[in-house]
Amino acid sequence: MSRPDVSVHAWFAARAQRSPQRRAISFEGRSTGYSELQQRVERLAGGLAAAGIGAGDRIAFLGHNQPVLIETFLAANRLGAIFLPLNFRLAPPELAFILEDSGAVAIVCDSSHRPVLDRVDTLPPLRIHAEDAVVILDDGDHLGYGWASYEDLIRDGLTSTPAAAQPDDPAILMYTSGTTGQPKGVILTNGNLFWNNINLEHLYDVHEDDATLVVAPMFHIAGLNVTIFTTLLKGGEVVIHRNFDPAAALAEIERSRIATTFMVPAMLSAISDHAAFVDADLSTLRVVICGGAPVPEPLLRRYANRGIGILQGYGLTETSPAAIFLTAEHALTRLGSAGMPPLFVEAQLRAHDGSVVTEPDTRGEICLRGPNVSPGYWRRPDATAAAHDADGWFHTGDIGVRDKEGFYAIVDRVKDMVITGGENVSPAEVESAVFGHPAVLDVAVVGLPDDRWGEAVTAVVVLRPGAALTLAELRDYCAESLARYKLPGRLHIMSELPRNAAGKVVKFRLKTTLTAI
Length: 517
Known about the structure:
This protein has 16 helices and 26 strands. By secondary structure, the protein is α/β, with parallel strands linked by helices. It has three domains: about 10-165, ANL, N-terminal domain (Rossmann fold, 3-Layer(aba) Sandwich), CATH 3.40.50; about 190-415, ANL, N-terminal domain (Rossmann fold); about 415-515, GMP Synthetase, Chain A, domain 3. It is globular.
């Protein structure tokens, strides 16, 4: 018996046939039904095909959250092309590296980012533009020089383009955030994306009447593939915000009766700090998934007091991203835990010598295996071989422990561990303690060189408006929950922490800045 076609274009077309009039996407006051969206995708695929785009070509997207991103992805998948979402916060040289490394032959860009593209030297000269979106194509045989319209491409596109994407074909090429060194392109297949959605369906129930709110950047794997495609697969509505704004998010939850959303802790904190949070009607908000960093206990309690549980997720671009999840009922009873792997993911811990860690509460590198795991990195056989072993296990570089009941806790990245006086200190543990101080709005903990201890536990803090904090006060507060050797030995106050597009603190940048002081 043949396998079902789990390619994104195939299951979305099937959903559109079954739910033609249901709202698929809502954006800035306009809703698009499943049938209408499918027709736009078909015509966009036809227009791209007429311009010479085919199976295996890379089609990039640069812009804020918007339906055009989803349309471009679905159209690329329709052709068997590979979708390449770009971080709109990158500088021109960074964009140039990714475009050159990926060999992208086309790029779709919203108008606000066209000036950035004009400063990228490696862009091909052939371009198609519109008020809201532009397309740049690397094929002078089909289209003349200059800018042409995205909407015209859809209007003039044919709908008879044959589908080429297969379940095992690459669907997305997504570059890692590059917190150290140059970013690597992670290959995600149609099968990876499908099985990620199945894993998520078993973690939280998605209903056909659900509306999901999208405020995290969609060029990031969690923003794109945690609630968006699980919702579309079920026939629900995806409500997209161009950017994150806490007041707008709260208003949208009430107006659109939002049931699910994905956010990073900084977003949840900003919403809970907003004056409207206390009285906002959040009764429809059934599932809040949070990832990118551990959720501090005080933040969990703020939401629990409103009757909202947080489903905390640990994952990576390489795992599409669902890897380990702590469901909401355990959020406050298993503080510090990341949870268990989803139904179709295997996890294990490996010691330094490569042996499998079997004893509970013993540190080891987290290794993952499953149909959601990337086959490797784009044109980087060395990096692929370093991260994937012969038995199919992906080595994450994260250190964790597993208790006797099978719950995992993420201790830290191998490279982020602070070693002070010969003791290993988990930044995540110290950050959770510091975050509870009433003066602290945001915090990151890093290790800085110290002549006596090797590294000093250093708390980098953003204070709440009007607050003040001394190192002695912070140490006294943290001493209630941390061993003495874990207490911050240094304190730096900053107006904001450097974060990447995924909401993660860029700690190497912090270390570089603070070491130079």
